[in-house]
Amino acid sequence: MNLLRNILKTPIKSGFCRSLISIYNSPLVGKSHASHSCVSRFESTKAKQHAYLCNHEEEEEDYVVNNFQGLDFPGGRVTFTTEMKFISEYPEKRIPCYRVLDDDGYPIANSMYEQVNKETAVKIYENMVTLQVLDTIFYEAQRQGRITFYLTSTGEEAINIATAAALAPDDVVLPQYREPGILLWRGFTLQEFANQCFGTKDDHGKGRQMPIHYGSKKLNYITVSSPIATQLPQAAGVAYSLKMDNIKACVVAFTGDGATSEGDFHAGLNFAAVMEAPVMFICRNNGWAISTPISEQFRSDGVVIKGQAYGIRSIRVDGNDALAVYSAIRAAREMVIREQRPILVEALTYRVGHHSTSDDSTKYRPPQEIDHWRTARSPMGRFRKWVQRNGWWTDREEDELRERIRKQVLSAIQVADKMEKPSLTELFSDVYHETPSNLSEQEISLRETIKRHPQEFPVDVPV
User: Fold this and answer.
1) Does 36 participate in catalysis according to the annotation?
2) 3-state DSSP call for residue 454?
3) Predicted local distance difference test score (pLDDT) of residue 55
4) Rounded CA separation 199/439 (Å)
5) The pLDDT of residue 68
6) Which of 6, 73, 97, 218 lies deepest, with the highest CB count within 10 Å?
7) Is 443 a known active-site residue?
């Protein structure tokens, strides 16, 4: 009320002040605990304002036309309104989810999607199966103590493989840690997966990274980084460099729903929007940030709505529908490259497996919920039904593929398990052009420790 009193002490011409008078004199304000003297003072001031406006009617009309209809403000013209209206904190209707196949694998009537030929469809499905078998066996290997850590993509195979199929080899991928299917599609071998998880001498990262922290310069797949969401601002920068070099490719940055609670998510999206960087942000909204449900993370309508706040075109897609994912990513990639602007894709899916081998998800979600998504809502089951109805796949081919991949994965593990580890020297190389003194001192200290306690040092690591 004090603010209104101060405003109304001086002659005012604008229509906005007329609206203030109207608001102040409304039944809503009348219900306040304003004193009688305050109301009387207001009535007196209102009378003076009315007399002023009547005497300056022509001047007031010019003022409204020139100053009330809009404001040329940095970022674009903003119109004025006499209505005090707050933006709703939640939309009346949730943003719909783009889908092509129903749960039984039948195309939904009048659905719009990218046509997929037999060769592409079969390759997508074969890669989904390969990823699933790979995850199953490597998870068991960790439980046997053969590797230290593992994380599966179970339930999210469609996002992995269908996205990979929709991209071009030149597109640069900055993954989170649940996107090995991108590498698989681009030609990363099962042996290369095993070498990384076992930290062998042939591992591209030379044994320095945790298992599943893959990377491949050859395949334009930036090495996985453990800290959540750090890859998102980096993706905006990589995309901007492509734009500066006039390279007709896009950057694809993956993240989970949990990462949207990190500051880097917001910084990355805002940077990309302002700089108009050709980057596609793909959020795997799988319902759980480790043990935290999305209902406890944000009140907004999922993740897709966040793009609008930063001025980024966005779409929500059924992440368990391979055809929908493929079609949406193809369309998004075309727009990103053609318009040189970012896009946000929210893929609704479900993490069927535990967050990692360090997690037991049955402690925070009911087993029947997991079973429902594993069976009735399986992305692989849905896509397989569609492929088989087209006459492109048989049960016999299914059995043969799974057996063949199982043998190949087991063979890759056996080779990696017996392979020599990277040399101790690799801990101190490839970081600096000239090794700094403090790093040299650390190497000397480590070698002296090994000489004093050789029994504590792994025998399969060359000194």
Assistant:
1) no
2) helix
3) 54
4) 22
5) 57
6) 97
7) no
Of 63-77, 257-271, 352-366, 424-438, the range with the lowest mean pLDDT is 63-77
Compute the distance between CA of residue 280 and CA of residue 273 in angstroms, rounded to an integer.
11
Which of these is catalytic: 126, 157, 355, 378?
Answer: 355
AA identity, residue 315: I
User: Which residue bears the tokens 């942000």?
Assistant: 281
pLDDT band at 416 (very low <50, low <70, confident <90, very high): very high
pLDDT in tens, 9-23: 444 334 433 333 333
At 431 the pLDDT is 80
> Is 433 designated active site?
no
For 287, residues 6+ apart whose C-beta sits below 8 A from its C-beta are 257, 293, 294, 349, 350, 351
Q: Please, are residues 328 and 344 in contact by the beta-carbon 8 Å criterion? A: no
Predicted confidence at residue 3, as pLDDT, reads 39
343-365 as b/e, with b when 16 or more CB fall inside 10 Å? bbbbbbbbbbbbbbbebebeeee
How many residues in the chain?
A: 463
C-alpha 185/C-alpha 405 separation (Å) is 15
Q: Is 402 helix (H, G, I), strand (E, B) or coil?
A: helix
Catalytic annotation, pick one of 314, 356, 361, 378: 356
Q: Of 22, 32, 40, 226, which is the active-site residue?
A: 226
Tokens of 55: 């005497």
Is 356 part of the annotated catalytic residue set? yes
Q: Which of 140, 334, 420, 448 is catalytic?
A: 140
Q: Which two tokens stand for residue 150?
A: 């593992």
- Compute the distance between CA of residue 425 and CA of residue 422 in angstroms, rounded to an integer: 8
